[in-house]
Every structure is written in C-alpha cells, then in structure tokens.
Write a structure and sequence with these properties.
The structure is a single chain. The protein has about 240 residues and is an alpha/beta fold. Helix content is about 25%, strand content about 30%. The chain has six helices and 15 strands. It has a five-stranded parallel beta sheet. Strands 10-9-8-12-11 form a five-stranded antiparallel beta sheet. About 5% of the residues have low confidence.
Length: about 240
C-alpha cells in the first residue's frame, strides 16, 4: 500500500485529510506533522511515497521544504492560495487541493494516484528529480535561476538579494530558507548575511573573501569553518 504523510499546521485541515484517507482506505497514513523540521526529521528515518503538503507552513514554506530534500517523494499540495501552483512545477506534484477540501475532490486525486498507475509496483521504480535550479518569486514573477549562476546571496532581514553575473533578484525569504535550498557541495556560508558560491571565490585573506567584483566579510562565527575549508580540512557545508 502507498505510504503517505501529512504536513499541515492547521488542526482542522489535518483532521479533514485524515478523515478522507480513512474513508478512502487506499493509502496508509504513516504520520502527521505540523511543521517542516518535524517532518524532515521523520523522513530521514523512514521514507514515504507521498506527502500531502501545506504550502504555508510556520518557519519555512512547503516549497522550500521540498527544495531542502535531496530526493523528495511525490507531492499533493494542500493550499488556500491557488497562485502558488506555478512554483510547484519544479517538483513531483501530482495535484493541488484547494481548501476546504471536499471528499469528492480528494477522491479524484486518489484515483489519479491509483488508477493512473503513478506507483507501478514498488518505490524503487520512482525516479527522483535531480534539480540544478530554483524558482524565485520576485515582483510578481517566478525567475528560474540555475545554481551555477548564483555568485552570492545577501541577507537583509526577511529579504534576500540573489546576485548573478547578469542581474540581482530580490525576494521575500530568509537566510535560513536559502541555507536549506542551496546544495552544500556548491555553496558555503561565510557570514550571517552572506552565502557564496564556492566556484566564485577568487581569494581568501584576513577577514575577507574576494569574488570577481566584490569583497565580502567573513563573520567571526564562520572564520574557523572557512579556514578549515581553505586548508582542505573540510568540504563546503552551510
């Protein structure tokens, strides 16, 4: 049987999905979580086939939660905001359920999963999506930015500036969100306000890192990690 979890911070919405799953009887509910950290910890211990995921979660959006997973399972978004649908195209999104979720609408999604043979025989046949980019929402648009394009990310309270050679994209996110999104093999945090691409580093000296056209400070709490990286004692880790 297909194993699923629910990630939803609203108790009523949790109960509705649980009730629909019980009534359907075609999926196995392995757990229910109210925020992204709880769910991520659970997924590190046990894999699942499907997530019913709320887009608006406390602390981290559902979209950024998915970006933080190396091989995310298939997803059904549950949301009150249909405008977020476009962002989900980079993931294994089966469907979008708009709250309040009726059993009839929920059943159509389950039919799509079961009758559409999304799960053909076993979990091993599901091919994970390997991403080399992110979609960033800015000025009412969704910008596709390749990881290889990003030179550094600059934090400004609840906003970020994502610097590429051609342009700067400003988005309403936190550094914590971005830490979970960017591949640790390609990026390293050097300051509470800066994450840089390892390939963009030209020189490291004193309390500074030189990139192609800018010099950035190394935070006191990050200096030991940077020097360990430079001297080969560790590899890039946010």
């Amino acid at each position: 049987m297909i194993k699923c979890i629910i990630i939803e911070d609203e108790r009523l919405a949790q109960d509705v999905i649980k009730s629909h799953l019980e009534r359907s009887g075609r999926l196995y509910l392995a757990g229910t979580y109210r925020n992204a950290p709880e769910a991520k910890e659970a997924l590190e211990k046990e894999s699942v086939d499907l997530i019913f995921l709320d887009i608006q979660l406390p602390g981290m959006t559902g979209l950024n939660f998915l970006r933080s997973l190396i091989n995310p399972p298939l997803v059904v978004f549950t949301t009150s905001y249909p405008e977020y649908a476009l962002e989900g195209y980079e993931f294994n999104v089966i469907d979008y359920l708009l709250k309040p979720i009726s059993f009839e609408r929920f059943s159509k999604t389950i039919d799509k999963i079961i009758d559409g043979k999304i799960f053909k025989s076993s979990e091993k046949e599901i091919i994970p999506v390997q991403r080399d980019h992110i979609f960033i929402r800015s000025e009412g648009k969704f910008f596709r930015i390749g990881f290889s394009e990003i030179q550094y990310v600059e934090g400004m309270k609840d906003y970020l500036k994502i610097h590429t050679p051609d342009h700067v994209v400003i988005t309403h996110q936190t550094m914590g969100d971005m830490e979970n999104i960017l591949p640790v093999q390609q990026f390293i945090r050097i300051h509470k306000s800066f994450i840089i691409a390892i390939t963009a580093i030209k020189a490291v000296y004193g309390n500074s890192v030189d990139l192609a056209k800018v010099q950035l400070p190394i935070g006191l709490n990050y200096k030991e990690k940077i020097m360990n990286f430079v001297t080969g004692k560790s590899f890039g880790s946010l």
